Amino acid sequence: MLKAVIARFAQGYRTIKFPDAHVNLPDRFRGVPLVDRAKCRAGCENCSTACPTGAIGVKQSRVRIDLGRCLFCGDCARQCPSNAISFTKDYRMAARKREDLVLEEGLPVLAAALEENMRRLYGRSLRLRQVSAGGCNACEADVNVLSTIVFDLGRFGIQFVASPRHADGLLITGPVTENMRLALQKTYEAIPPPKLVIACGACAISGGPYVNHAETHNGVSGLLPVDLFIPGCPPHPLTILDGLLRLVGKIESQSNPQDSSAHRPNAPESSVR
Fold first, then answer.
1. Residue 133 sits in the same domain as residue 170
2. How far apart are CA 228 and CA 78, in angstroms?
3. Does any domain span residue 19?
4. Least confident segment among 9-18, 93-102, 214-223
5. What percent of the chain shows pLDDT beyond 70?
6. HSE (CB half, 13 Å, CA atoms) of 264?
7. Better pLDDT: 161 or 59
């Protein structure tokens, strides 16, 4: 026991100071994609052709990116002859509405908090049941990481539970395969109302790389009402954590979410409770 205590003191404080301080991310991290329209070449659709999930559409040199379909693979940026597409280090992408994940210009509209009566219920204590509905285990791994000492999800009053009877909502990963559809539906029905549904990752939002496969349902939206969409393949743990905290009102969205100055990758949050 003494050795364990000594080792713990030697390690020091390992939990990141998010959201009170900026978190440095590695250079290889791909966050919110940006398109420089001034560099786009008329008639060029290389980015759209290269995208494996159809997340990019081009019309009259206007590039439309669906973060709900995006795998953040970088193929679009590599195939762009004029380097018009780049990826920022901004991990904040979670949205309350599916349409808010579609970028035609600027940056995404960040998730707003739950209604006041729901915040009173879940603002201090939120229990989630995680369901892997045919996922590859990448999203599941990054969700599990949130419970480690680095992120310490429990300090915000959010925990994952084993039984849906003890849960306030579902956090779903995977494209929802036909084999998992009934199990997912029964798990949802076992949660006492009112309840939340969170779609985590491109697969759960749109089907990801398995979109339109005969044995998948292209995500959860067509089966259950979704309260929060967290894009990524897989989403970074900070993307998940940021979305969850915004949902329960522990991080307030900027008054003008499209203000690029408020979305700089290194900019601090405007208000943290």
1. yes
2. 30
3. no
4. 9-18
5. 92
6. 7
7. 161
Enclosing H/E stretch for 56: strand 56-59
Residue 162's domain comprises 116-263
pLDDT band at 253 (very low <50, low <70, confident <90, very high): low
Which one of 87, 105, 128 terminates a domain? 87
What distance, in Å, lies between the first and last C-alpha atoms of the chain? 37
- Which segments of the chain does DSSP mark as H helices, in order? 2-11, 46-50, 75-79, 116-122, 138-145, 178-190, 202-206, 237-247
For 76, the 3-state DSSP assignment is helix
Whether the Cβ atoms of residue 158 and residue 248 lie closer than 8 Å to each other? yes
Tokens of 134: 């045919």
Residues in the chain: 273
CB within 8 Å of 178: residues ≥ 6 apart = 215, 216, 217
What's the CA gap between 35 and 48, in Å, rounded?
Answer: 13
Q: DSSP per residue over 153-164, as a string?
A: GGGGTEEE-S-G
C-alpha–C-alpha distance, residues 15 and 152, integer Å? 7
Crossing angle of helices 237-247/138-145, nearest 10°? 60
H or E element: which one contains 213?
A: none
Q: What average pLDDT does the structure give for the chain?
A: 89
